[in-house]
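Hi F.,

I've been meaning to write this up properly since the lab meeting, where we talked about keeping a consistent format for the predictions we share between groups. The idea is simple: the sequence comes first, exactly as it goes in, then the structure tokens exactly as they come out, then a line or two of notes. No screenshots and no reformatting. I'm using this chain as the first example so we have something concrete to point to.
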Amino acid sequence: MSPAEISRAVLLASPSDGGDMTPSSITPGTPGFIAIFLVGIVILLLVVDMNRRVRRVQATAKVEARHAEEREAAEREASGAGADAGGSSTADADGEPRDGEPRDGGSAPETPDAPEDPSGR
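Output, unedited:
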């Protein structure tokens, strides 16, 4: 017999245990329910753990960004004190005054870059 004839005979053959099939014999039953329930619990625990880790990473990134801004502000203050002694210009590359600078060449009131946090954070 050729492989094509064998596959045709298998496809056309009737099931050998046709009378044994009942709804309770083809359902997963209690072991299947327990297995799926445990898989669901594991997935739930993984999602909770993932959310906790993502929140931790985001909080760390915010703290690092805040520290970087504070360092930049401190560097600007330090370089600003040295630049004021050297006579820094208040105009940009086109010769126009920068935003917030008076057009008459006088000094503008200093405003903080970011609002001060009273809690010290």
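Notes:
The chain has a mean pLDDT of 76.
Helices lie at 3-12, 23-26, 29-86.

If this format works for you, I'll send the rest the same way.

G.
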